[in-house]
Amino acid sequence: MIASLAFLLTSCLATAYGYVPDQPAASYYYPNSEFNAGLEKRHTAKEELTECIAMRSDAGIYQVHGTGEESACGLFLVGGMDTQVEIEFLNFDVDCEDGGVVGILDGWEQNGSIFPPVEDMGKTGIRHTTYCGPNRPKQLFRSSGNMALVQYRLPVPGVGFIIRVTYPLNPKPCNAVSFLPEGKFMLRNYGLHVNCSVMMMYPEKLTFTYVNVGARDLKTTALQLTGADHTSRHCAEKNKGDKVEVRGGGNFEMVNMQLFQELCGFHPLIRDTHSVMCGATMVRLVSSGHYDNTVIVENELLSEESVTVQTFMCPLDELPV
Questions:
Q1: Burial class (CB in 10 A: 0-12, 13-18, 19+), 45
Q2: What's the rounded Cα separation, in Å, for the pair 132 and 95?
């Protein structure tokens, strides 16, 4: 019934890495922490990227050389869900006059679709930076979430750049991409007026095991105890629009994804399951800043046994093939 459950961002597959889902508050994977620490003290062997579209989750040093092609290429970087992506240029020679350019995006882009969406970035800083010329950019780039995209066009053979990539821990993780088909994650706004999302590149079975959204007012400390989940209308009546959304679509453009379910209130022992049969699945926490919101979600790859009449379905053209 399900020909393939993996939604491929590009033609290349993400490098596999582990996951530790035992403790809800620390259920994120820390990628190569010892290797990251070592990188701070020394350079390691370089990996020369020969494919135009590449994806990497390992810290390391990456080298790119122009081949004379006019094509735009990209290196998709993704770390553990509680990390950021830090990029340092070690060498740089990209001729502006010949049409060469390198850009770094705080997030990911695919066919015009960008994640995280602009309205969920939680800051007003520069999101996309471009570079060219003979001088090495000296400023470090650090993403707001666990993903970044290095885009480049190198039409002159031999020119190029070398970057060092590390994944420092994010003290307040918000937006993240997960290529892990199963595990557990937590979304929290820390009392801030910010929206946070986790994007999964698979059709998923989601089980909410803890929901505290729009329930504890930061000014009054009053806790609104609720015994059932609410629609968006009820959430708007109960609080200031704080809610957690379940969305699905054919790509990760949030505005094009279908909104399947909304939850709010205080449910410390909930086990509320939602199956999403789409190419991409999103859990989005919407926060007004008046509440300290937290949700914990278990996710697993959607199987044929999980597909029921209650499954949220995307149109056929938005299903994985």
A1: exposed
A2: 6
Across residues 136-141, what is the average pLDDT?
92
Length in residues, the chain: 321
Q: Half-sphere exposure (CA, 13 Å, Cβ side) for 122? A: 25
Q: Are strands 243-249 and 258-263 parallel, antiparallel or unpaired?
A: antiparallel
Q: Is 166 left (phi over 0), alpha (psi -120 to 50) or beta?
A: beta
Cα gap 267→68, rounded to integer Å: 58
Q: What is the number of H-type helices and E-type strands within the chain?
A: 2, 23
Q: Hey, what long-range contacts does 17-23 have (CB within 8 A, 24 or more apart)?
A: 17/57, 17/58, 19/180, 19/182, 19/183, 21/182, 21/183, 21/184, 21/298
The C-alpha atoms of residue 244 and residue 263 are separated, in whole angstroms, by 5
- The tokens for 117 are 């969406």
50: Cβ contacts below 8 Å, ≥ 6 apart: none
Q: Does residue 9 or residue 111 have the better pLDDT?
A: 111
SS3 321: coil
Residue in 80, 77, 287 with CA at minimum distance from that of residue 196: 287
Residue given tokens 């789409």 in the structure block? 278
Tens digits of per-residue pLDDT, 251-310?
878 888 999 999 999 998 888 888 999 988 999 999 999 999 999 999 998 887 777 656
Distances (CA, A) of 48 to 39, 163, 291: 17, 11, 47
> CA–CA distance from 127 to each of 63, 103, 226 (Å)?
23, 10, 39
Distance from C-alpha of 156 to C-alpha of 95, rounded to nearest angstrom = 8
Residue type, 226: T
CB contact at 8 A, 94 and 102:
yes
